[in-house]
Amino acid sequence: xxxxxxxxxxxxxxxxxxxxxxxxxxxxxxxxxxxxxxxxxxxxxxxxxxxxxxxxxxxxxxxxxxxxxxxxxxxxxxxxxxxxxxxxxxxxxxxxxxxxxxxxxxxxxxxxxxxxxxxxxxxxxxxxxxxxxxxxxxxxxxxxxxxxxxxxxxxxxxxxxxxxxxxxxxxxxxxxxxxxxxxxxxxxxxxxxxxxxxxxxxxxxxxxxxxxxxxxxxxxxxxxxxxxxxxxxxxxxxxxxxxxxxxxxxxxxxxxxxxxxxxxxxxxxxxxxxxxxxxxxxxxxxxxxxxxxxxxxxxxxxxxxxxxxxxxxxxxxxxxxxxxxxxxxxxxxxxxxxxxxxxxxx
Amino acid sequence: xxxxxxxxxxxxxxxxxxxxxxxxxxxxxxxxxxxxxxxxxxxxxxxxxxxxxxxxxxxxxxxxxxxxxxxxxxxxxxxxxxxxxxxxxxxxxxxxxxxxxxxxxxxxxxxxxxxxxxxxxxxxxxxxxxxxxxxxxxxxxxxxxxxxxxxxxxxxxxxxxxxxxxxxxxxxxxxxxxxxxxxxxxxxxxxxxxxxxxxxxxxxxxxxxxxxxxxxxxxxxxxxxxxxxxxxxxxxxxxxxxxxxxxxxxxxxxxxxxxxxxxxxxxxxxxxxxxxxxxxxxxxxxxxxxxxxxxxxxxxxxxxxxxxxxxxxxxxxxxxxxxxxxxxxxxxxxxxxxxxxxxxxxxxxxxxxxxxxxxxxxxxxxxxxxxxxxxxxxxxxxxxxxxxxxxxxxxxxxxxxxxxxxxxxxxxxxxxxxxxxxxxxxxxxxxxxxxxxxxxxxxxxxxxxxxxxxxxxxxxxxxxxxxxxxxxxxxxxxxxxxxxxxxxxxxxxxxxxxxxxxxxxxxxxxxxxxxxxxxxxxxxxxxxxxxxxxxxxxxxxxxxxxxxxxxxxxxxxxxxxxxxxxxxxxxxxxxxxxxxxxxx
Lengths: 346, 584
Known about the structure:
The structure holds 2 protein chains of 2 kinds. By secondary structure, chain A is α+β, with helices and mostly antiparallel strands. Chain A has 2 domains: 29-105; 178-345, 3-layer Sandwich (Rieske Iron-sulfur Protein). Chain A is 34% helix and 12% strand. The longest helix of chain A is centred in the first third of the chain and has 31 residues, at 34-64. By secondary structure, chain B is mainly alpha-helical. Chain B is built from 21 helices and 9 strands. Chain B is globular. Chains A and B meet through helix 2, helix 3, helix 4, strand 1 and helix 8 of A and helix 1, helix 2, helix 7, helix 9 and helix 10 of B. Strand 1 of chain A pairs antiparallel with strand 4 of chain B.
């Protein structure tokens, strides 16, 4: 079917009412009354003048208002930010409103008509283009020389490989890094922020302490922290824990975990098994721990079983013991990977 | 109508009529004038007169809804301007530094350079906080305007041939704008955005087979590493803006080539476009509108604090704030993530783990949503077998199946978005978060279906109303009492322009099932795709009401005239609907 046929076969809707055509143009007051026209002109110019005033206010405020320590001057906003924002907004809005007012009141408002053309080219143009394309292809001989064509496709296609391989050094391979943390046998549990070790007697039933392995707070012989910067963050992101104490009779330890608690003190990974947010909302009566990101809820008295929400796995538990000085320590590292699930975790 | 005798002489020429002040002062582009000389100079080098002659007075139709895309365009320009300002001070580095700036509560803290420089931008650079907040507000506006613009284009059928490719470009712009937003709000490396990146690490790890590799490549090792901020920065200020700029250029070029769609009305046809010329009216209105969008973002930036990172503090992987929420446009996939049940959707087999509870809502679902959006114009064209060009817009009611489809999608989006704020809803309305979640798990499936059915029926009743108005006129609110004492409401015919605009629509009818016959007259079996098309078409395009025919209209009008005559013959009188004179 040629284009012309296609166009002529287009259904033209049967309109039951005759097109009345464009109505007569209505002249605006500003078109017919000189006083109104002058008034609109003055309004537009006044808006532009107000804009200039606002710009001057902006510059004055920039230099006059000290930004340093006034971030709550007005309703929680810094005076500098507030005045700069308002004056800039005034300068811009007055220009915008002025131009539009000008267009609406003073520029011609008679609607004009333009004819449309089909998006497609004419049949002649199409034919000529197809012929040119065909001539080009013929002269290149690409269809008649499959050897050249196929080797070229192969060569260009292979270039995709360096494009991918070149990104290999974006990062190291995962290896087994996700399977372990810096927790190890005898590592002291330390309070978050202050880094002090915890005695069982420091905790009452119902308490929750946010903790870290003490190694994150330790220094070497020269007084330099063992972990800092990136190292610190990476290990914190995996090794953070919550320590809770409950009535030992409330706790139902999973088989094989009977000796992981110390006097009702239990320790779990703080990193949600859903997508990895740190968990921190604890309901001490029900022993439920809620993740504030997506509301996964874990029952800490039942092996951190998921009782609600999108997480699929319990929080990993850290087996606890008490060392000879009477402080809480880990019996070992976590026995499973912490944080969000991943393909290789099994 | 307001044409008075004073302008009688000027009717023939617009220029002589409009704004005599323009004539007195405006610059002229005639030969020899400065503007003319400059244009001449440029044309001798660029040869643009050929293209400019058609486009300087290009006609753009006027309607408030055509402004939505413009908001998106101008907010992107605001983003470029404010964004360049921010890059002059922001440092995309995760190296640890000690904060020493003007914000006292934070002095001495060990923070990343990215965080410190963002706080500096807020408290040590004059206008910096304003620019940060304007940038963020403009980003929200950018995406909101794109979404609403997309709905306008869909509901009015403006994406039909020949504009399908521009629809595709628009969807890509929406996707890139969203990614641009996510990469942007991650850059300050504060507590909230760090939590977002932490979750993103979980999303990436949920991808089957390659998840951990993708995560290690993204973060240059284990989360959070020290590379992700600078990488996101490159994506945010170079890669995505470049792509967005290119796509916007293509979007605009196609708009100019296709010419803008227009609403049906007197004098408006599929073959013409009626409106104001680019120069001066449209250029002035659009240019002025840029200043208004810019000004509104300045107002928002100056008055409303957004993303106060100094209150959130620097990122610490062991801490989180309650009520962690992404920016609004990331809300719906986050909601999906919240209501997807966990335990039944994670599987371990053959020593590997498949986390469908994360992978489906956050990776698969958004991908499917994008594919659905991309496919909409092509699916509709396939179902309707409509090969015509369309330049007249359709009212949503005149295409019930189409309108209902988008309302169903919007309902799904809205419910998912609600789910993204389930904790806020629970606290604000004192509800149980568990019950909200259980409710939404059902509602996201049932809601869109109900919305589809209700919208379709609603559209069809609006069509009936239109037909009623065309046949019997609109209700005037004037109560007539007949000689016999009966009361009736007086109906007046619609103004002819409005009646024409309503009546000229395309009939919305299902396609017939093709029963082609071969040369022996034996009907060939219908293909499966033809049967599917027939079924879809019958549901999406069936049940509508056709516009009355000319004969029906004439009959109805004759009938109405007859009734008026009857009424006029009695000694009845018109009473207002308020009924102060209503007799008992």
